[in-house]
Prior knowledge:
Layout: E1 36-44, H1 76-100, E2 105-108, H2 110-115, H3 117-126, E3 129-132, H4 145-163, E4 169-170, H5 180-187, E5 192-193, E6 203-207, E7 210-214, H6 236-255, E8 260-266, H7 268-271, H8 274-290, E9 293-295, H9 298-308
Parallel strand pairs: 1-2, 1-8, 1-9, 2-3, 4-5, 5-7
Antiparallel strand pairs: 6-7
Helix pairs in contact: 1-8, 4-5, 6-8
Amino acid sequence: xxxxxxxxxxxxxPRRDFVGYGRHKPRVVWPNGARVAVxxxxxxxxxSEYSLTAGDGRGEGLAEIDYPxxxxxxxxxxxxxxxxxxxxxxxRLLSLFEEYGIKxxxxxxxxxxxxxxxxxxxxxxSGHEPCxxxxxxxEHWLLSREEERQHIRWAVESIRETxxxxxxxxxxxxGPSVNTRELLVEEGGFVYDSxxxxxxxxxxxxxxxxxxxxxxxSSFPYxxxxxxxxxxxxxxxxxxxxxxxxxxxLWLEGDRGYPKMMSIGxxxxxxxxxxRASALRQFIEYALAKGDVWFARRIDIxxxxxxxxxxxxxx
Length: 315
């Protein structure tokens, strides 16, 4: 029997890349010689999720409560979990960041900020980065190309109005459509996107004949969504332990001459609870005490890469 040959069909969307930097790992130089760049990301989605009150015909999942109440009924318990993130959780996180002087990136759905302008004002005043998480927190692959283009425009206009600045980064829910990256490049105002989970470093790719920067969001091991997944964390101690171990290993790689980037993903309705926020506090204090760690917004990482690592093209 003849061994099947490898095929790579010409289908819509980005070309798959299994090699990346390969054996030619870049010797990255972060500011002040940091061994690890830590990007804390707050996924601010509350108020933009699917709900019957928004006319979606169904409610949202990915909360603390997962009970099959039925699509025809409002799930008031789950709705209130999302409200907790917007009413209490997000402000606990923002206060914690302010205490330690750490700037973060908010993957924010535009509608979420429209519904809670206190959060938008805090972002505006404190210098956290508003990165677009879409106009609403929906599946972009269900939209037509023109519908998705309109959603991108709405998101940019809305965040500019609530935060006083347009978003320079983009991150879709779960993942992009086959059109997303092309539409972002066509829009012309985005510096980077984070719609990839495939590396520990930023990289350049080509979109429509133009070079485009990707700042990967390889955060699943260090993402608080695992608090509500069956295969996830047992509790805050597990979250802290996993993040600490990840930082230690990346720090060691940086000490050996190959600094990396670490993404930590948070959600106000999850990490915004006091017990879980305490684990985040513990990690921040550990990282600060360890030293040679650069806590950075994703736009800062993107700009640094553009300014200092032009030659770091993948083979």
